[in-house]
Each structure stands twice: as structure tokens, then as C-alpha cells.
Amino acid sequence: MNNLQQQIIKIDSGLRISNYLRPLFEKTTIGKVHSVFTNGLNFRLNDQLIYLSKTTDQPLSGIGIVPLDENITNDLFQTIEQGNLIRVKPQELFFYGKPNMYQIKFDIVKEFDLSLPTLKIVDFTVDSLADILAQFPIKSIFDNSGFRNEPSLSSMLSELESNKKNINQLIFDFIGRGIGLTPSGDDFLQGYLVMSKVFGQGKEFEQNLIESLKKRRTTDISQAYYQAIFDNILPNQLWQELFLILANPTQENTDRLIAQVELMRHYGHTSGNDFLLGVIHFMKELHHVKKNNKE
Amino acid sequence: MLYTVIQKNNYQDSINLMLLTNSVNELEGVNKGQVMMATEANIDIFRSGGLYTEELETATPNDMAIVVDTDDEAVVDAVLEEVERFLKDLSVKKAGGGKVEVDNWEDALDTQTDANTVLVSIPGIYAADEIERAIDEDLHVMSFSDNVLLEDEVRLKEKAHEKGLLFMGPDCGTSIISGVPLAFANSVRTGNISVVGASGTGIQETTTVIDRLGGGVIHAIGTGGRDLHEKVGATTMLDALYALDKHAPTDVILVISKPPAEEVRQEVTKVLHSLSKPVVAIFSGEKPEAHEGDVYLAYTLEEAAQIAVDLANGDPVKENYTEDLANDVSSSLGEGKTLKGLYSGGTLASEAGTLIADALGLDSYESSADFILNEQGFAIADLGDDQYTQGRPHPMISPDVRLAKLQEAVEDETTGVILLDVVLGYGSHDDMANQLAKPIKEALDNAKAEGRELYVVATVCGTETDPQGYDASVQALTDAGVLVESTNTKAIRLALKLMGYDLTFADKKVVEYAGEKIDLPEPSQKVTDLLNSTPDVINIGIEGFVDPIENYGGKALQYNWRPRAGGDPQLIKILNAIEKMEDIQEANEEVTNRLGESQPFLIDVRPAKEVIPFLDTDEKIVLHAGPPLPFEKMTGPAVGAIVGAMIFEGWAEDEADAMRQLEAGEVKFDPCHNHSAVGPMGGITTKNFPMLVVENRADGTMGYCIMNEGIGKVLRFGANGPDVIARLEWQRDVLGPVLSKAIKSTDEGLNLNVMIAQAITMGDEFHQRNIAASLIFLKFLAPLITKLDDVDQKDKEDVIQFLADTDQFFLNVMMAASKSMVDYARKIEKGTVVTTMSRNGYEFGVKIAGMGDEWFKAPVNTPVGLYFTGFSEEDGNPDIGDSAITETVGVGGVAMVAAPGVTRFVGSGGFDDALNTTTEMDKVYISNNPTWTIPTFDFKGAPLGLDACKVVELGIEPIINTGIAHKEAGKGQVGAGTVRAPLEAFKKALIAYAEKLGIDFE
């Protein structure tokens, strides 16, 4: 009996984890693989969807975990299928695949606080808002977003931009609309939602969104991100840096803002740009309000 | 009238033959028929089925027997056509797979070098030996085979335990190892539950319910139904539990047991409570009232699965798992209605018996041969029981048994509810639901039209990823009007409800366990390794088990098993004993090595009387081929040759004179083999025949043979006319002396190994074809002959011309060489390597190393082949000659692949036939000759070291290429072909050797 085919493949790696998920890793729980992609996979634990990144260099998602030391092998992503069980223990992820099972042991767990920060509107002037908006390459963001090739989305965005409708009127239509596992319409709403919560605005918008999501379903993954934001968690680590820059609008930070926006744009296929369209729209609205108040 | 056809050596898998039997019985004109391997047990089945014929007694367990009851003899042809079509279809399917398959243990172990498990599914009477072999080879065993004796099970489980191995079974239909289904298992999601179960469908029901509840199973270890028998002592279950307790991916252990022996139950209970993981246990026949500590005691299979899933998810165990039924029943059937349970799964049927008895308030009930339970209008049958399946496929494989019972149930006007299961998964019928749906729908439609109340209630045991698909199966049944419930328990409850009984289950709380706990032993490393790897399986028996293993990431090798030694228990005992004798195996290797290291040199040609002292006398002595034979029994060619030799020697004037002397007993006979000599065909050799003299330089052993005379009318085939005598005289006076001088003009003689090694690459196999070797021989000799100073030029020319004309000249050189090889090798008087095969036209004789000079004989066969124009098989003489010495050293028919053209003698004659022949022969030889490598055999050497054990074990009779002599004296050669050495001679040799070794085989 030589060369037994080892069924349990062991991976030792530390882990980065969102503070949002930490409580779920404190006891043994059985979950199920929800979806598998080239660069990561989602699994459901109790009612929470969790994204496991494949490589160490991916930004930590609000509902995610990222290996700290070592990339996860391709083998796991080729073996694990939707519906496979996963056992979560305080320092272990165990995938029940066929023919192989994978045990990811993580002695080191680095927890990252992805809680939504708070910014005060009073700290921003009409000019500073205009300066900030000027750092966003709006046309390029639109052209690379999921809105570009989806007429209904671009049409709704036009209606918002031209003030023909306000966002509360279009929530229902944006939900679940567009391409991707996180549809562009959802990303847009989430970008807007994050901004409105950070600036302490839009209670009405959040409530409308919650109600609309009860009536109109979107993908499980978008749903999970919505819930995280409702629970005051950022979609991913990139947003933290954005808000640090916005909180301190110096010239030096203007350069950092440009770079950070560029980083955020590359998150996902079109998601980064879709998020940013939501951010931009919120900033435009804020600028508009400030300007009108000033006038 | 009964017609019997016996197909010799056509071994087929029993499941295939059951399906074939079904197919035969569907043919028009067949009253009934049966196709089975002719084992003793199967002959009993023929007898009990009214299909016994005397011809069956002539068949062996390796023969396929077909018995047909028909009023029209022509129907038999149709049956045989169907048999051929069916089996050909199987072989086409096999060929399409392109998979490696083996038919013996050595090849299996050589091919599947990392195998860790053997899956056995062969008739029970043979299973114990194969299981023991597997355990001896350090392999875990799963045995689907049943009918293994209890004492064998006890012994083998003990042996497996001592070696740290797991013996799952016998009669274990289902296992899942590392998510890989073995035998009749379902496609179940992998997860943190492991099952140890004593029953097949019990495991199937719980694992599939777990899957449908969202849970997963990593291992399901079948133990066999008697594991908790007092004599077995739960050996397999305990070894499995110890290992699962340390198995990291397992969080919950589910134990399914048949009614256990009380003391074994107590021991198992202690172990369950000593495990570090929560356990769900169901002991069939017990109705637990509470859970005990961390051991949750279930009453039904459904409940066991539900508790396991809750535990696996970290959820609290509920006090009651009763769920609503899927089908709403508003009223029950009227008085006098009965329920018929027609189950294919044994444990599912047992569960029905238990729950129905519970609902009826019975404290106990008796099972009979026909029914698990038959009380108060409730009759539950396990149609998979031997009672219903003897000679017929199991109802999980074929619907036939159940359809017949279904019809009976429908025809019974009292029947109100028919309860049945459909078991999906690997090994089961590929669409049982639809097979049952049509007749059920008809029955329900008819009942409705007649205003009769009739319900069919079913459960489907399976998962959506099973080959048959759970949803599709449920839909097919539902569409037919069947009331389908998701578990067997629910189906039983629904059936009871229709019959007016409401079965409820009381709440169960957890009470503290107050009994003893023990320190568990460390699990065996081998079992731990098994549970932490994907199985690598040698599958002995049902071929259909291979694909599921491979589809789920395991490895599997198909071992096309046939009963060892034709199923002869005495011979099997002998083989088992000899296999374990290391000194015999070493002796076999040594004898074989001696054959391989032989260095035959042709050193001279001398008159026989000079090299064989026995002939150097004034007595009339004739040496002959084969084992000793009195003149009265000699066949035509030998008699013809003896007459010719007597005329040649001047002992007789003519045939009449010779015959008178022979009949008067004036001539003595003795086998060539007794005098270091061999002779082709009649092998007739007298004192003045010129003999080829070969020395085996390994130790100086000598071998002699007369010279080849060409083909057609020659003495060795029994011709004795003047031309024949004149040629012999020329050989004596010219050819012999000239060759002698030429050979002796060299320093060391002619190195025959060199010639053989060259010629075998040029298309010779040295029995039927020697043209290349003869030309090489001429190449060496011609220059030597031309250089001889004291030989007349015409004689030189005549000799060279004769050698050039005689394609088979080298045959006799090869025979002398072979004789010098075997006589050198058999100086080691130990072991089972065959040192002689020879025939005298009456008997085939075999010698083996361990029995020295003793002959073991059996009647010869008559060659099959091609006949010269004007002759037919009618004219052929039975097999004769010492030339099988070539096959003894691994050439001739054995090396057919070296000379593919020769294959024309055995039938179609393609290259594949030649390759197949040598590949088959290779299986009964121990090694391969490193010097005589065959290009068309991928440069593998010619087979070397014929092992009588292998011949007997595999039932492969060595094939011999041969000329065919006319059966009448004086007519000579009439054809050429092949013949098989009779197995019986090898069996006799082995039995005699076993007696000599003191092996108890009675």
C-alpha cells in the first residue's frame, strides 16, 4: 500500500477577515458552497454568504476572507463544486469535495474593521465637493461600467442626472438590473447607499431600499452585500482608504484620491465603476444641495 | 422437451447470465429456459426449476450451461443466437471501454500496484478464498458475496483485524469510502457524517435521506449482516468506530445494526459511549424510549438520518422528528382490505415489518421464508431474499420478480394497499420507476373503472445525482398514480393510515448514560490510511462496480475472475497451501532460471547406439514418443514408423514380418524421454538412427533427437515405404557423418541460443515454423561442409541441398536443445514447474520438477487445424510426439506471436489471434526468457517456466502447435494445427505433489 492517494489536501495559511464575519468563525458550523469563480468562491454559513478569495493580494471584502500567506491552489477551485459542504471551525475551513477534501488551517487571523466611517457634511464646502468630483474620471467610469451597454440603466441614470426623477423613485428599477453576479444596478445603489450612510443622509433611501428588496429579489451575492451595508459594513477595504482621503482634503490627498479611485475602478469586472457611479451621483446631489443652500 | 447446450470454458458473470436468462425466456417458443455457470449449486437450481438434464453432470463450473424447455427443436437455435448476440454485445461494450482488465491475482497486483481495497462479488462458495488472498496481500476487503460460512467469516475477520485491515462484509451490498461508492451505493454529497452499517439498503436509505436534508456523508462502512453475531463480535464495526473517532472530517457517527447478540450489544454500547464524537444508533428491532448521553437512539432510518444531520449542523437534537405526510389521507379503506409490501430492499422491508407490528400492537412476529411479516392482512415480502431470487436477478436490478408479485397482488381482490420501494443508485436498474409505473397505472385505472379501492404507496431511495435521478423517478411514479413519500418510514405510515392505523412516535429526551466507558484502543494505521484516501480497488466480479468508483475519483481495476481450478475445492486447497510455501516458490524460480540460463550447443551427430547405451544391444529395442505405452495401444503413425524402423535396421524384411514380430512381443519399447532423447510424432528411434547431439553447457546435460526427414511421407508420421527407408539410410550414411564432421570442425560446436535468438526475431516459433532457424543453421554449416576435405563433393552438395530444402530441419535441433534444457532444470527435484510435456497418441504425459521422473497422464486430444487436400479431421490421428518439448521451454504454440502466420491453424489467423494466444499462455508461465525476445511481443521474452499450479488455477491448457499424422499406419502427414494439453494431467501431477508434500486437501 504505497503512494496512497491522499484525500485531504492541507493548506496552512493565515487569514484576513472582516470584523463582520468574525463571530461566525467562533464555533463549528457546517455551510455549503454557493458559487465558485476563477478567483474565489462564496459559501453560505447559516444565512451569511461569505467570499473566500483565492489569492493573498485581493482587497478584503466586507463579507470576505482572504488568505494571508499563501494563495489557495487551483486544485481546490477545480475540485470544489456548488453544493459541497464546508465545515468552519475557529481556525479551520474544511471543504468536503470529491475526490479530495481541503483543509485550510489558519493559526493567524487578522481581523480588519470594515465598519462604515462617519463624515460630516458641514466639513465639506461647495468648492471642496467640486474639487473632489473633479478627480473622478466620470466619462471613463461610465464607459467602463455596466451602464454603458445596458440602455435601461443609462436611461435611468440620465433621468437622475437631469433631475427628472429622484433615486427613491428608481430604486425598484435599479435592483437586480444589469450584468454580473452583482448586477450593475445593485452596485450603483450600494455605492450610493454607502455614501448616504457615511454622510448620515438618506434614512428614507435606506428604508425604501430595504422595503424594495423584500419585493424584488436580486442575486444572493448582491443581497449579501446590501445586508452588510445595512449592518454598517463597507463593501471592501478599498472604501476605507477613500473615506480617509475624503476626511482630509489636502492637495497631497487629491493625488491619493485619484490613485484610490483608479484602484476602486478595477474591483470586479464592472463593479468598481458601477459603485463609483453611485458615489459620484451622491456627491453630485450633495454638491447640488450645498450649492443651492449657499445660493 | 429439454435441450441442453454446454459451452466449455465460457465463464460469465452471474448477473449477466440472469439478464440473459430473462432475454431467453422472452423468445417465442421457449416454455422456460435457464443459462447459468454449471456449478453444483446452480445444477441444483436447474433441478428445482424442472430443467435438470444428465448432460449437466458433464459440465464443470467453468462451463456455461444452457437448458431450454421447448416443443420445437428449432427454437434452440434461436436461443443460441440470442446467447451469442447478448454476450457479443457485452464484449463490444467491454471493448469500447479500452480499460485494462486482468484475470488473475498476479496481474492484478502488478497492475494496480497501489491498491488498498478488494471488492469481491463472486459466488459465495468461492469468496472466502479470494477474501483470504486479499487479506494475505494486505488489502482491505469489501465482500458483496454472500453465503460465506460463519466460521470463515469469524476466521477471516479475526485475521483481517490482526493485520490491521478492515473486512467489510460478507453480504455487504453498500459502502462509501471517502465519498466513493462501492457496489450498490448512491451518489451522496460528501460531508461530516460517517456511517457504519450492517445492512445495504439501511445504509442507502439513511445516506440518501441525509443528502436530501442537505447533509453529507464521507464514509459508509458496511459490516455485513452478521457482524454483531456473538461469534463475530462486531469486529468490523469496532475497528471502523475506533478509526472514525480519530478521523478529522467526521463529526458525527451513525451506526446501523441488525438485531445484535446481547453481549455484543453491550460491548458495542460501551464503545459508542466512549467515542469522542456524537453517535446516532439504530438497533433494528429495538424501540428506544430515550437518548443516552451522546448516543442518540433512533427508531426509524428516517429519524436516524434526521438526528445525524442536526448533530452534523451543530443544531440541537429534537425530541420528536415526526413530520407531516406528503399525501393527505382523509379516510381509510373498508374492512377486509389487505396490504401487500413488495420490497426490493431487505432492511426497508424489515423496517416495514417492525413499524407495522408496532402499529398493530404486536409484541413480536414470526418471519417466514416468504414474508418478513404476515399478520392481520399485512404481508411484507423482501423480494430480494434468496426465496425469490434463486436463478433470477435481484429486484433492484430487474423488475421481473416484482412485476410478477405486483400482478398477483392486484389480482387479489382483497388488496387495498400495495407498498413498495424503488432503490436508485449504482448497480440498480437504470429506470426502475418507469418499469413499474406502466403496470401500476393500468392496475389503478382498472381498479378505478371497477370502483375498487386500491392504492399504491412508494418510497424512492436515492438522490438527485444518482444515475436514475431522484426527481425523475418520483415523477414517473406520481404520474402513474402512486402516492410517493420521501422516506420509507413515511411511506409505511401512509400505508398504515390507509389501512386505518395511525402510527405515532413518542418524544424522546436525553438521559444520562450511567454505564461503563472504556479507553478505546488506537485505530489501525491501515484503516486510518483507508479512511484518509480515495479507494484504489481491485474489483473481483461484477464489472459494473468499476465505473462508479472511477467516476467519483477512486481507482479500480477489473479482475475478470473465474473459479480457481474450476472451482474444485481440493485443488483450491492445494493451490492455497502451495502458494504459501516459500521454498516451493523459490524452487520454481530456480528451475525457471535454469531453463533461462541454459546454453545448448550442437556438438555432434552420432548413431543412437553410441549416445544411448540402452540401444547398444542386440535386442530389438525401439524408443518412442510420450509416456510409456505397450505396443497394443500404439496408434497408426507410431506403428507405421516402428515397421519402417525395423526394416531400416534390418530386423524385418517387410511390414508383415515386422508385424508378426511385434505381435509376438519380440520388440521392446521405452520412451525416448527415459534416455535423454526426444523424437517427433511417433518419436521412433532405433540404434542406427543418426542423432543430433546437444550439450547444455550450463552443466553438461545432454539432449538427443533424430534428424528431420522433411515433410509429407516420412517415417515420423508413420510412412514406411522404400523412399522413406532409403532417405533414412542416406541420413545414416551421408547426412549424419557429414554434419558430424562439419560440426566437429568448429572449436566448440554450434551455439544454438544464438540461432534461436536470431530466428525468433525472424518469424519462427520453432514448432510449426522453423524456416528462419533452418536457414541460419545452413548459414553456419554450409561453409564448414564445403571445407571438409574427406567428404565426397556430391555428398557435400546433397547435404547442403537437403538442408536448404528442409524448412523444418531445425525443429529436431530445437527439440534436442529443449531436452537438454529441461533435463538440466529438473535436476532440482522440487516445485511445480513442468519439465516435460509429451504425447504417445494415446496419452498425454506431464512431468513436474517436484515429482522427478513420474509421468502424469490423461487421454490425448485430437489436433484441430488445416488438412492437406483430400484429408479431413476424420483422418487425423490423436495427438502424438515429443515435440511438445518446445512448448515446455516456452516456444512453439506458446510463442505464437513470434510467428503470426502460424495462427492460421487456429482459425481466423489474424495477428491479434497470435498475440492473444501468447498473452494467454504467458499467464501460466512464471517468467520470460531474457535471451529469446520477441519483437511482436513488444520485445518481451518467450514465456519461460510453465507452472502446473497456474495451469490448474486458471484452467488454461497449454497450446501446442503440431503436425497431424494420418491415423492409419504408413500414410504419413495429412495436416497441421494446434492441440491443447489436457488439464487433467496437470491436476494429477499437482495432487500427487500435494500428497508428497503432506498437504491436507481432503
CATH topology of the largest domain in chain B: Rossmann fold
Q: Helix/strand-derived class of chain A?
A: alpha/beta
Count of strand segments of chain B = 40
> Radius of gyration of chain B over alpha carbons?
36 Å
Q: How many strands of chain A?
A: 10
> Strand percentage of chain B, roughly?
15-25%
What proportion of the residues of chain A form beta strands (DSSP E)?
15-25%
Helicity range of chain B: 25-40%
What spatial order of strands do you see in the largest sheet of chain A?
A: 1-9-8-7-3-4-5-6-2-10
Mean pLDDT reading of chain A: 90
Number of domains of chain B: 5
Overall geometry of chain A comes to globular
Distance between the ends of chain A: 85 Å
Q: Helical element count of chain A? A: 11
Alpha-beta content class of chain B: alpha/beta
User: Globular, elongated, flat, extended or rod-shaped: what is the shape of chain B?
Assistant: elongated
CATH superfamily of the largest domain in chain B: Succinyl-CoA synthetase domains
Largest interface: A-B, 25 and 33 residues
Structure explained in plain terms:
The complex is a heterodimer of chains A (about 300) and B (about 1000). With about 300 residues, chain A is of the alpha/beta class. Chain A has 2 domains: about 10-110, no CATH class; about 120-295, no CATH class. Chain A has 11 helices and 10 strands. Chain A has helices at about 75-80, 125-135, 140-145, 150-160, 165-175, 185-200, 205-215, 220-230, 240-245, 250-265, 270-295, and strands spanning about 10, 15-20, 30-35, 40-45, 50-55, 65, 85-90, 90-95, 100-105, 110. Chain A has a 10-stranded mixed beta sheet, with helices on one face. In chain A, strand 7 (about 85-90) and strand 8 (about 90-95) form a beta hairpin. Chain B is α/β, with parallel strands linked by helices and about 1000 residues long. Chain B has 5 domains: about 1-95, Alpha-Beta Plaits, CATH 3.30.70; about 105-320 and about 515-560, Succinyl-CoA synthetase domains (Rossmann fold, 3-Layer(aba) Sandwich); about 340-505, Succinyl-CoA synthetase domains (Rossmann fold, 3-Layer(aba) Sandwich), CATH 3.40.50.261; about 605-820, Alpha-Beta Complex (Enterococcus faecalis V583 fold), CATH 3.90.1710.10; about 825-995, v583 fold (Alpha-Beta Complex). In chain B, a hairpin with a 2-residue loop joins strand 8 (about 175) and strand 9 (about 180-185). The longest helix of chain B is centred in the N-terminal third of the chain and has 24 residues, at about 75-95. Chain B starts with a strand and ends in a 5-residue tail after the last helix. The interface of A and B includes residues 3, 27, 84, 94 and 99 of A.
